[in-house]
Amino acid sequence: MTRDNDPDRSVSQTVRALLSLRDLILSGALAPGERISELSMVERTGASRTPVRMALVRLEEEGLIEPIPSGGFSVKAFTEADIFDAIEVRGAMEGLVARAAAQRGVSDAALADIRDCLAEIDVLIDAMESSLEHFSDYVRLNARFHAALHELSGSPVMIRQAERAGALPFASPSGFVMAQSALPQARTILIVAQDQHRCVVEAIANREGERADAIMREHARLARRNLQLALENQTTLDLVAGSALIRRAR
Amino acid sequence: MTRDNDPDRSVSQTVRALLSLRDLILSGALAPGERISELSMVERTGASRTPVRMALVRLEEEGLIEPIPSGGFSVKAFTEADIFDAIEVRGAMEGLVARAAAQRGVSDAALADIRDCLAEIDVLIDAMESSLEHFSDYVRLNARFHAALHELSGSPVMIRQAERAGALPFASPSGFVMAQSALPQARTILIVAQDQHRCVVEAIANREGERADAIMREHARLARRNLQLALENQTTLDLVAGSALIRRAR
DNA sequence: CGATGGTTTTTTGTATACAGAACCATATCG
DNA sequence: CGATATGGTTCTGTATACAAAAAACCATCG
Question: Of B77, B19, B50, whose CA–CA distance to B244 is shortest?
Answer without folding.
Answer: B77
